[in-house]
Amino acid sequence: MSLRQSLNNAFKGFDVNNLDFSTAWSWPIGVKIVTYLLVFAVLLGGGINFLVLDKNRALESEIAKESDLKQQFETKSYQVATLDALRRQMADVELRFAELLRQLPTQKEVPGLLEDISAIGQSAGLEIDLIALQPERKAQFYVELPISVQVRGTYHQMGDFVSGVAGIKRIVTLHDFSLKPSGGDQLTMSIDAKTYRYDDEE
């Protein structure tokens, strides 16, 4: 019997158009073998997909994680390497901040500051027309305390006054001054002084 005849006998009586899986037990041997091979191929393909491709995806995911972990490690290493320097900078900033806070008058010291400004004006030989505390202005971390000052005297006396105010240990800044003649060598100066206090209500 030739191979062709054997193949014909293996598929004898099978019609693809009348395929019925409920009678699969009675299919010719050739059809059964082809069906088994197809089922095996599907199972093998599914197994390869599940075992190999899924593992490959998991491997790629782990490789991506490795890259992220390396980057995190480099970042953390840099942070650890600079930690001592950052601590020193922080301590320095805290010292400077404390020093600045000491230069800001407390609410109790504001009247004394007004007296200091008045005394500086008098020692410079000025006539003091006005030294008045204006309403506070709140900023984000501090409160601004404006002081209106109006004095009369010579140009040099006013220079001494401004230098004296600048030398006060507390932080006092001078703004928006105007000079007007008031007879002879006398001038009238209006100036806004500002001091600040830490807003501890924040």
Structure notes:
It is a single chain. With 202 residues, the protein is an alpha+beta fold. It folds into 2 domains: 1-103, no CATH class; 109-198, Alpha-Beta Plaits. It contains 4 helices and 5 strands; from the N terminus they run H-H-H-E-E-E-H-E-E. The chain has helices spanning 3-10, 29-103, 110-123, 155-166; strands at 127-133, 137-138, 142-153, 172-181, 187-198. Helix 3 packs antiparallel against helix 4. It is rod-shaped and about 135 Å long. The model has no long low-confidence stretch (mean pLDDT 81).
Largest sheet: 5 strands, antiparallel
Roughly how much helix do the residues carry, as a percent range?
Answer: 40-55%
Q: What's the order of the H and E elements?
A: HHHEEEHEE
Strand content: 15-25%
Summarize the structure.
This protein is of the alpha+beta class.
Key phrases:
202 residues; alpha+beta; Alpha-Beta Plaits; five-stranded antiparallel β-sheet; 5 strands
Secondary structure elements and their pairing?
Elements: H1 3-10, H2 29-103, H3 110-123, E1 127-133, E2 137-138, E3 142-153, H4 155-166, E4 172-181, E5 187-198
Antiparallel strand pairs: 1-3, 2-3, 3-5, 4-5
Helix pairs in contact: 3-4
